[in-house]
Design a protein that fits this description.
single chain; alpha+beta; 30% strand; globular; 8 strands; four-stranded antiparallel β-sheet; Jelly Rolls
C-alpha cells in the first residue's frame, strides 16, 4: 500500500484500512465514476492513470489527469453528494476500493483513526484546490 497518500495516517492505520480494500481492474477507456452519481465507495488508484472530465455545454472538458496514489469518491464520502466529474481510465488501471459503510464502521471503531483520516482528506483536498487555482490564476506579483 505504498501509494496511499493520506499523510496524517500512521502505519497501523494504513495497514488496517488496506486490509479492508478490494481490488478492481479497469480496461482503458472505462468509466470509474460518473458525474451526478453518488459513489458508495472510496477508490485508491494503484496503477495506471485516469482523466477527470466534466461535461460543459455538451463537450468533455478535462479537469485533471491523475496517477497512482490518488483518492476518488471523496465528496460522496464527506457529504453524501453526487460526484461532480466523470473519471475515465487512460490505460488499464487497478484500483483498491472500500465501501463507504465499511470505512465509516472502521473509522468509528479505532480511537483517533477518524481524526487522522479526515485531517488527511482535508490536506488532500487543499492540495487539489491549490493545483486548480494555480492553473487558473496568474502568479502574484512581488
Amino acid at each position: 500500500m505504498k501509494n496511499f497518500r493520506l499523510k496524517f495516517l500512521v502505519e497501523s492505520d494504513i495497514a488496517l484500512i488496506s486490509s479492508r480494500f478490494n481490488r478492481q481492474h479497469f480496461s482503458a477507456g472505462e468509466t470509474v465514476l460518473t458525474e451526478g452519481v453518488v459513489s458508495q465507495s472510496l477508490y485508491l488508484l494503484v496503477q495506471g492513470s485516469v482523466k477527470v472530465v466534466r461535461n460543459v455545454l455538451d463537450e468533455e472538458v478535462v479537469i485533471a489527469r491523475l496517477g497512482p496514489g490518488e483518492m476518488l469518491g471523496v465528496t460522496s464520502l464527506l457529504d453524501g453528494s453526487a460526484i461532480s466529474t466523470t473519471v475515465i481510465t487512460n490505460e488499464p488501471c487497478e484500483f483498491d476500493w472500500i465501501a463507504l459503510t465499511d470505512l465509516h464502521s472502521l473509522l468509528e471503531s479505532v480511537p483517533g483513526l477518524a481524526v487522522r483520516f479526515y485531517r488527511s482528506l482535508g490536506a488532500l483536498l487543499a492540495d487539489r484546490l491549490d493545483t486548480v487555482l494555480s492553473q487558473v490564476t496568474p502568479p502574484a506579483e512581488e
